[in-house]
Amino acid sequence: MLGIIGAMDSEVQELKNEMPDAKITSVAGMDFYEGHIHDKDVVVVKCGIGKVNAAICTQILADRYKVDSVINTGVAGSLNSDIDICDIVISKDAIEHDMDVTALGYERGVIPDMDNSVFHSDSRLIDVAVKSIEEANLSVKVFTGRVVSGDQFIAGKEKKDDLVNTFAGDCAEMEGASIAHAAYVNNIPCLIIRAISDKADGSAEMDYPTFEKKAAANSIKILKQLIKNL
């Protein structure tokens, strides 16, 4: 069973439309669509915005649906000058950038009492995603990079530069690292796919509404091909 998580309707609705006979179960205010896409067992869910919603959702997928892998699809702001709007970032790893216990001597992003704070993506899922993007014939560039997540919409140069300098982030969003975190503690392979909706700078508020739908549509195209290839 493959678990697919998006934070917003635009990130998962088209996948739900591919499952007309889906069994829908509501848990913790989230609707889990269980069915088939390309003859593969999948469960698709909108988790809502933010790290807590995303982590709760991932744990439900682990406990109730016993998923054997999790893919998080959606949009993000670019932190890398080479990565433009509508380009694709496949996660090599993910970090929670708003984890800050520096007052107790930890580096930013380090989660106390955990053996790991950088959550690496599954190598097989990365390979399948790269192949799937090539086959989807999207006229965008593809990057494998670091996703940094926090409960903030990044829309200023100072914060953007901080995330680049501190974490070497390639894109910023609000769910991926918490999904990767929850998958890690449950020993579930995980991958984050992000289409760039804005540049996470002073133009972000203007760019995001314009490009969010187009970026999300690109993510959906990739995910459909990826499901077929798994």
Describe this structure in words.
The chain is α/β, with parallel strands linked by helices and 230 residues long. It has a single domain, classed as Rossmann fold, CATH 3.40.50.1580. The chain has 6 helices and 10 strands, in the order βαβββαβββαβαβαβα. It has helices spanning 9-17, 51-63, 123-136, 157-167, 176-185, 204-229, and strands spanning 2-6, 23-27, 30-37, 40-46, 69-78, 88-96, 119-120, 142-149, 171-173, 190-198. GO terms for molecular function: adenosylhomocysteine nucleosidase activity. It comes from Eubacterium album. It is an enzyme of class 3 (hydrolase). This is adenosylhomocysteine nucleosidase.
Topology, element by element:
Layout: E1 2-6, H1 9-17, E2 23-27, E3 30-37, E4 40-46, H2 51-63, E5 69-78, E6 88-96, E7 119-120, H3 123-136, E8 142-149, H4 157-167, E9 171-173, H5 176-185, E10 190-198, H6 204-229
Parallel strand pairs: 1-4, 1-5, 5-10, 6-8, 8-9
Antiparallel strand pairs: 2-3, 3-4, 5-9, 6-7, 6-10
Key words describing this protein structure:
230 residues; alpha/beta; Rossmann fold; 10 strands; 36% helix; 29% strand; globular
